[in-house]
Amino acid sequence: MTKFKDLNLSDDIITILKAQGINKPTPIQEQSIMLIKDGNDVIAEAQTGTGKTLAFLLPMFESMRADINTIQGLIVTPTRELAIQITQEAKKLRQAKSLNILAAYGGKDIGAQLKKLKGNIHLVIATPGRLLDHLRRDTINLDKLKTFVLDEADQMLHMGFKNEVEAIINQTPKKRQTLCFSATMNSQVKKLAYKYMNDPKLVIIEKEEVTLRNIKQALVETTDRRKQDALCKVLDEDNPFMAIIFCRTKRRVDTLDEALYKRGYNCQKLHGGLTQAKRERVMKDFKNTDIQFLIATDVAARGLDISGVTHIYNYDIPENAESYIHRIGRTGRAGEKGYTCLFVAPKDRSILNQIEHEIKFRIPRRILELSIDNNMKSEQKNKSSKKRYGKKINSDSNKKSYKSSRKNMKSR
Ligand code: AMP
User: Poorest-confidence range of 141-155, 181-195, 248-262?
Assistant: First the structure.
């Protein structure tokens, strides 16, 4: 069994990892850390949950020098949430080497941070739009960059960031190390990767290692009209500790959030239409388990590592198997058990067939006894106190604090 020591990581780094309960490398770390340390360009096909962030952060930290005042590392990610998460992981490593880290993503004013660091930045973690802004304004200079990481490359292209990514790469030195991490290696990703990479080494981590194994899957057959009642019935039966409910669009998130709130559920919404401050606040509240139900678009599905999510509900069917795996992969993490339930209307049948075919599994059907007065039952539920995984929660007071937090959020 490989140890971090075998990967030639410094004792300082190993000590910090140990303090976080990280004692042995995951397969992606085992396979890529040495390749990266040796200066290779690497294409890695690995999903979130595999430990891929540390797979590139650790060797980068080893090679970067705190005594040189230039940007030596750049990590570009498709979403702000992912940028925040990587920044948090990177900051934990600063005890081993005090590198200055700049997180540059939309919605965040980094003027003050730039001033504080007096331009002395070693590692930048950014979303494409904001980074380009800085490059245009000359507030960030990549002339001395050593390692460039493109994280979640498939998602980046899916979100239409190809031109931005190319514009960024064109501002980096030709003689750089390029690392490309992607959950899937479709032809678009490969094309982009091979265009800008120098004899890249390929690392592939089997999907089964991260997905589905610990997750109990179920499916409810319903109709668009009865979906909301079906969801509430399931939520009442499951009474999850922490759940994410996925919807297809921002508007559907808004509508469901409003409806569940009226029915007395402790919920908040997360999608790209919210201000950055709101998004961060919601994520924080969810991580602190102040919110039981997070209603989200796929923005939340990618990359987020929120421990403790016990249930994933696909209120709207994801567009393909890949997206299904990503969404449900937010639960059942770190060896814990997870549960997921998918709501399927008749028009979703063909996508469902495709998903079941690709995951090679017929998702067990869950039968609900839905009565017309489910709404009323839901109302009654609010009036009584309820027990959530051994934690007594009074729904009324819950609702109140939720209301005031909503007010606060609105007032910002
Ligand atoms: P990622 O795939 O980068 O999103 O990582 C998922 C989670 O796994 C993060 O919370 C990491 O802190 C954690 N992690 C990363 N590497 C290891 C490891 N070698 N052992 C245990 N947990 C790890």
Answer: 181-195
- Output the pTM of the full model: 0.63
Q: Please state which architecture CATH assigns to domain 4-205.
A: 3-Layer(aba) Sandwich (3.40)
Hey, which of 6, 23, 53 would you mutate to test ligand 1's pocket, going by the most ligand atoms within 8 Å of its Cβ? Answer: 53
Please state, for a pLDDT cut of 90, what percent of the chain lies above it: 57
In 317-394, alpha helices (H): 321-328, 349-359, 374-383
Burial of residue 247, with CB atoms counted within 10 A of its CB: 0-12 exposed, 13-18 middle, 19 or more buried: buried
Domain spanning 209-411: which CATH class is it, in words? alpha beta
Give residue limits of the domains in the chain.
4-205, 209-411
Whether the domain at 4-205 and the domain at 209-411 fall into the same CATH topology: yes
Distance CA 122, CA 145 (A): 9
Confirm if 270 and 283 have CB atoms less than 8 A apart. Answer: yes
User: Looking at residue 407, what is its pLDDT?
Assistant: 37
Distance between CA atoms of residues 98 and 212, nearest Å: 38
Nearest CA to ligand 1 atom 6: 49
Q: Which tens digit of pLDDT belongs to each residue from 229-261? A: 999 999 999 999 999 999 999 999 999 999 999
Cβ–Cβ < 8 Å for 300, 324: no
Neighbour tally for 62: CB within 10 Å = 19
Residue 368 DSSP symbol = -
